[in-house]
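Tutorial sheet, problem 5. The two components below are modelled jointly, 840 residues in total.
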Amino acid sequence: MQTHLLTIGDEILIGQIVDTNSPWMSQQLNLHGMAVIGKSSVADTRQDILDGIEYAALKADVIIMTGGLGPTKDDVTKKTLAEMFDSEMAFHPETFERIESYFQKVGKSAPPAMRDQATLPVKATILPNKVGSAPGMWFERAGKIFVSLPGVPFEMEYLMSNEVLPRLQARFQASPIVHRTLLTAGEGESNIARRIEAFEDTLPPNIKLAYLPALGQVRLRLSGTWEGELKPDAAARLNAQVESKKAELQALIPDLIFGEENDTLQAVVGKILLAQGKQFGTAESCTGGYVAHLITTVPGSSHYFPGTLVTYSYGMKEKLLGVNPDTLLRFGAVSEETVREMARGALGALQVDVSLAISGIAGPDGGTPDKPVGTVWMAVSDRSRTVAVKYIFGRDRLKNIQLTGTYALNLVRRFLLRQV
Amino acid sequence: MQTHLLTIGDEILIGQIVDTNSPWMSQQLNLHGMAVIGKSSVADTRQDILDGIEYAALKADVIIMTGGLGPTKDDVTKKTLAEMFDSEMAFHPETFERIESYFQKVGKSAPPAMRDQATLPVKATILPNKVGSAPGMWFERAGKIFVSLPGVPFEMEYLMSNEVLPRLQARFQASPIVHRTLLTAGEGESNIARRIEAFEDTLPPNIKLAYLPALGQVRLRLSGTWEGELKPDAAARLNAQVESKKAELQALIPDLIFGEENDTLQAVVGKILLAQGKQFGTAESCTGGYVAHLITTVPGSSHYFPGTLVTYSYGMKEKLLGVNPDTLLRFGAVSEETVREMARGALGALQVDVSLAISGIAGPDGGTPDKPVGTVWMAVSDRSRTVAVKYIFGRDRLKNIQLTGTYALNLVRRFLLRQV
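Model answer (structure tokens):
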């Protein structure tokens, strides 16, 4: 089964937004055993949409369109699809009720434009959008499937996960594919590759290993495909084969692996804190609250996280964390001495069992010859010990903040597990 | 003159990389008065490349390809182009010398594969690549131009800026295009549409308005194209026409507009704080440091931002911000009374002139009948006044945090400008 992704709208053609929808969709389709053979973008005019769909349908069995479905005037997608599939438009009460209740929940009434939004081609199967107003639409013609989704990323993701992928899987009897992902933090791609080289060389041809690097993390994904005859136990046997390779890989680099599949470092740290019955807080300088933000994205984090002190200035480091002014003067804010005092100060100030302190030079300015931009000191502390580590990241401010977040959470995890 | 961008290679189709080349190229072409009418991606096989070029050339005058030229790839792109343009391949000494001297500069000798890299279709005009090994190639046929560039971003950017754009400009007397974007916060797409309906109806046919929504923000983009005869003053006249429409739009919704083009709310707030010489801090509960993170993504924010108190627990709200325990007991943490006390407490605790306090129920749990998940109270305070506002967002934790960030920064902006 072959898919083509078609984005509709000027904002991609003029380069105003970077298309992150397509990579996400490609990955999801691949994970479900479906290939993407082409991608294209067209303007939101009737003719461009018609031509774009025609081109996509030349080779693909499934054409997934995104964009061009918002409530305002620049949207012609729906009408063009109705024309293409020779379909009347009609008011769709279920969709309107869903939109109305969505507005009611936030204490507003649905604006009049929402009636248009609920007016849909009758030949489409409507895919209910529970996280926004524009529903998805599913058309079929001559054995091909045409799906139209809103372009807002989380609405597209909701509809793909809950409507499109399950329907495609039910329709196409795909050969079993099994994916297992191990998550690592704190080591680069090439160093990991060196440690698992022998393992990689012994992988059977039907199991592939992919390195998926993100900031400070590398996901290792084993993908097994069934290459023999489609017997009833094929899925179970493939599963067992991939699980055994996963166990082998895990045993090679236990120090680097923090979780599996969709785990996040912040959720893993949260689980350990809950299990150990510990309260945790942060004292952040260069990360400016980013680590606290990560921690509090986890539902229920209030059970182990009372708060954070973002002490951007010298004054606040002294006043809120009790850092000694002499320490700041002698060693500077970005120093082992200062982060150690910050971490110990945070234990009392936030009344927690374990604390994390971070101080660094995020950039783009503020570096010196011995402390270049990207230099970050971090410390983790409890009542009995304090561990401090220095990293030197790069020159990009936002990237430095994000890398620091990853490395700091990983340091907390290893501290809690007494690996450091 | 109309352009089509074609990316070649599997890494985009399987979603392994996000395509940032195309937005950059689109922006550059637009700035030079050239429109991008389509974009597509194909796999790096001969047939896919041939079909992709054929589709692109249906409508475009200029087809710019990226990718499929590196030393480790099959040079299927190069051979397919040679085939398509009925061209011999030949060793190109200038290219080889350039590659050799490039390697010499970094103290290495050119690997053998580099002789292949310097073997090129004789019918191509070679575009010398001074920042990498693979040169660009420029073909012409039947009045259309076909350019092939390496996919490595800085190599592509070098060749576009130094070879492709100057040649295209010299060749085509391009019709001017002008884009102007106004950024709004705090109101949805359909409500904005209602307020500017009359304006939209009077737009001349050569100016289009697009709504580009993101979480809590909508960008309004006016795009003007010159449709008359290409007189010398065309660009200036189009510019004046779009500017005047922009001013009209601005006058209709001044309360919603916070900036233009690539501004961010956090940078705009930062500029106002700098201009007013004020220190600013936040006291955050449900956002868990997210607003502080946004503020500190701006370089130089340390000049107006000493810190933040993330007070997730009742205890920290009392201890760090001096919130009265009775207030918390009587009205709850998510209440007007509490955020007002948090904001006033933060003024002293952080020694700032202006403070923002936020307390809400991010979800997915913790809602009650009169305070559903998504309820957020926020307050901004200085020495003389405090403004508090309640919002009810949705059910998604991360979205609630992000929406709160946008609305809160916008409230701070309006408070500083005395619009609230």
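Marking note: The two ends of chain B are 48 Å apart (CA to CA). Full credit if you identified this.
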